[in-house]
Amino acid sequence: MHVGIPKEIKVHEYRVGLTPDSVAELTEAGHSVVVEAGAGLGIGFDDADYRRAGARIGSLEDAFSADLVVKVKEPLLHECARLKRGQVLFTYLHLAADKPQALALIKAGVTAIAYETVTTVEGGLPLLTPMSEVAGRMSIQVGAYALQKASGGRGTLLGGVPGVAPGRVVILGGGIAGTNAAMMAVGLQADVTILDKSVSRLRWLNDHFGGEARVLMASRQNVLDAVLSADLVIGAVLIPGAAAPKLVNRDMVRAMNDGAAMVDISIDQGGCFETSRPTNHDDPTYVEEGVVHYCVTNMPGAVARTSTLALNNVTLPYVKALADLGWREAFRQDPHFGEGLNVHEGVIRHAKVAEALGLHAIASAA
Q1: 255-311 pLDDT, tens per residue?
Q2: Pairing of strands 68-70, 285-288
Q3: Beta-bridge partners for 348
Q4: Which class does domain 2-118+303-357 fall in?
């Protein structure tokens, strides 16, 4: 199969769909790979590295004309226009919060497979997990910066010092991102509270963190009480394929401490704070209702080398399956991979994505 790797063009996005090592595995298996010139330069992979791996260095048009296009971030609208029926696109899509992109992919007729809705037999999200780990850990770093007075924050040090109480960190969602956020916050000796709706997950979190983090059921009252007393709130809620629920409304934000900070990891899926709006790495924060908001839609792009390597660890087996078998046979052999199918030949194929967009869905074509 002919595989194309375009250069990512989102603001300060330096990740790349495949590393030279991943390309080598494909070319050694007999597949041809074209990499857009300069695609990996931002994280230290130059064109010569890809040539040594067996790839051809080409143009944007070359990369987007391949049978299988492998990216990291969702294609922008002018990139969607380059895609066509018969091609397979494999990348993060997050269509539930991006109707224009969904309509553009429908119009293109491409077969679009989303990393974030591929599942495992246990119900996990294997291709989202590493980026959730990165975003969760990053959320405490960027939140700590947002709390600094020069950033518009209230001037709180998360770890406190002897004689001064630590900052209060509230984490909404105890999944992969939330757990990683909690690990970092606990490591900084902050006062940490994690809220989740799953009793089994709450038990796991309690056992995992012991007495180092407070673990609460995410009831309306508990969320309200925790958010209003917080210095830093992390939104880490995910419903696969669907828009994120709005757990914190504007009135709650208005009642928070002036200079508190909020980091919305769920912003790719629309965000879980009513006051959230997408930002980028050039202008990552804004102040709304007296609270500093960080809502960058590609958080892991800030640590692009780590993120690319972590992503390739999990995506490469799926890329190889698509290249070796074609998407239909790959889905037949692994129906959980088939959960990644979001768009095919002009129709939304994922029920939760369609519901979030208000569009009709039909059963998977696999």
Answers
A1: 999 999 999 999 989 999 999 999 999 999 999 999 999 999 999 999 999 999 999
A2: unpaired
A3: 343, 361
A4: alpha beta
pLDDT, tens digit, for every residue of 137-168? 999 999 999 999 999 999 999 999 999 999 99
Quick one: pLDDT at residue 361?
A: 64
Check: CB of residue 136 under 8 Å from CB of residue 166. no
Q: What is the CA radius of gyration of the chain?
A: 21
8 A C-beta contact, residue 117 and residue 240: yes
C-alpha dist (Å) from residue 86 to 68, 69, 111, 331, 343: 9, 11, 7, 16, 12
- In 3D, which of 243, 197, 188, 184 has the Cα closest to residue 223? 197
What are the sequence ranges of the domains in the chain? 2-118+303-357, 129-297
CA dist., res. 86 & res. 44, Å (int): 33
- CATH fold of 129-297: Rossmann fold (3.40.50)
Mean pLDDT over the full length of the chain: 96
Nearest 10 degrees: CA dihedral of 177, 181, 187, 188? 160
Please report the DSSP string for 257-297 in residue order: PTT-EEEEGGGGGT-SBTT---BBTTB-EEEETTEEEE-BT
Q: Give the tokens for residue 336.
A: 């959980």
Active centre residues (catalytic): 94, 268
pTM to 2 decimal places: 0.90
Q: How many CB atoms lie within 10 A of CB 360?
A: 9
Q: How far is CA 216 from CA 60, 74, 120, 229, in A?
A: 49, 35, 28, 15
